[in-house]
């Protein structure tokens, strides 16, 4: 059993190295290690593994499901775009719905992502765009995202590597995306559209991916003081174990 785990880890590491080699001219954030993070175009991306993150803790507003490559965005309108899933988990949201997390003195609007692969371990988030509009039932991709407030690919073909094996299954966190609050200008009742594309650099295998946000305006990311205390606690336990 130990040998199989080691082989899987080596295979995953080799695959990630190949991905980086093929993307020498792109900004790539690798979230395949617990606690990893990175930045692209001013946004922060964190590997996230809090459990549980289901109903009551997280409000889902977008589900996307497809095979190979999948894409979609949230709206109250119809028809839905490409691989966007219909139902109560896809709907419009407003700026006021999104929690504000403060990191290093900067405010960010927080988005949660839960990936659900059916068999493949690694999944790529290849495009992420966010736009602000005056109504929540728009359906035209070209119009909605003509001038996004945030674009993952601004300045290059950038992407994020995700690992579904860290937290397997629905309801477990995988990523937090923190977008600068300064980009969300205008009244708080304006509508936020999020477009995502998965599976270009590492294919999706028909599990659904879902975006959400913390309930009641409470951010999911730990406060800096909490993170520091967790680090001290881990250090104390390590020293105690060695003794």
Structure characterization notes:
With 243 residues, this protein is of the alpha+beta class. The chain has one domain (2-242). Helix content is 18%, strand content 36%. The chain contains 3 helices and 14 strands. The chain has helices spanning 2-22, 141-144, 224-242; strands spanning 28-31, 37-40, 43-47, 58-68, 70-73, 93-94, 100-103, 106-114, 122-133, 150-151, 159-163, 175-180, 191-198, 204-214. Strands 1, 5, 6, 9, 10, 11 and 13 form a 7-stranded mixed beta sheet that branches. Strands 2, 3, 4, 7, 8, 12 and 14 form a 7-stranded antiparallel beta sheet that branches. Strand 7 (100-103) and strand 8 (106-114) form a beta hairpin. The protein is globular and about 40 Å long. The chain starts with a helix and ends with a helix. Mean pLDDT is 82; it is low at 1-11 and 224-243.
In short:
Helix content is 18%, strand content 36%.
